[in-house]
What does this fold into?
Amino acid sequence: MLEKKLVTLDEFVLEKQSEFPFASGDLTRLLSDISLAAKIVNREVNKAGLVDIIGTTGHNNIQGEVVKKLDVFANEQFIHALTVGGYCCGIASEETDEYIALDSPHARDAQYIVCIDPLDGSSNIDVNVSIGTIFSILRRKSLTGPCTLEDFLQKGCEQVAAGYVIYGSSTMMVYTTGKGVNGFTLDPSIGEFCLSHPKIQMPETGKTYSVNQGYFQKFEEGLKQFIMWCQEIDDDSNRPYSLRYIGSMVADIHRNLITGGIFIYPATYEHPNGKLRMLYECNPLSFIVEQAGGRATNGHQKILELQPVELHQRTPIFMGSKLMMDHVESFLNDYASVSNK
Ligand code: AHM
Ligand code: MG
It folds into this structure.
């Protein structure tokens, strides 16, 4: 019997390049730079528990190298890979206050901008729970020379590509270039991401809602009502739903993408813009969810249509299976006039 041929991420991306007329190959190389950095980060994530044995932040490890906090390490790896690659002219990272304009002769005139959260779910790093990397790729607006802030402040619908890496029970990279969503699992024995989840489609509805319910009292009335509705017993709609909240957005979204569900990080009365960042958390994951057939909004407007005005802007976010999104939005609308506090 013939064995099925493994398709690696690099092969797949290269093959798909032909779907874009006049493609220069730069996006292909950019994705390859990101996946290389992800493999290096994955190696360190897998060793995270050994930090207690070989030293902690600021201490020397056995090789005499300084051991860094993983999120700092991940940030450096992605920035390094993108800088030496030379296929993007600027990077915005959750870990750096200002954007980085790359100024090597090649990078200055590169066409792409990358927004990245190098290691999301940082509170889970020390406790062996899944964490992730999220990235968004935009085409620059300025024509040439060093990139500008305006190059970063683009609506999510302008994204050329977006993806995430989940460092979980296995490591996966999931990405879209606006023609569906595909997932690749890292085979550690050959060090390659291999196509494992082609054409991911999010189920129209699910049985899972993901929200930090500890903050229930701080939510707007419509959301409280939706959560109580999720908990009601109703055989026809398969309720009560299950609450699953990992506190790592990538992991919560990944599960919901595969099995159906809704993820919510809403406004609270203290934080009207919620917690999550538009450019490198909400936009890329919304692009993926929409490409897989789901929806993503701030409760009222599509995330991908919001105009960012600052680099680290936050937005409330609701994203998931279509029918569950319809339900939550109708609760939000019905109770819109009930004041919070
Ligand atoms: P981080 O970028 O500091 O890691 O924060 C983002 C994370 C998300 O992955 C997750 O959904 C959320 O913060 C959890 O926040 P909370 O603990 O408030 O529920
Ligand atoms: Mg983050």
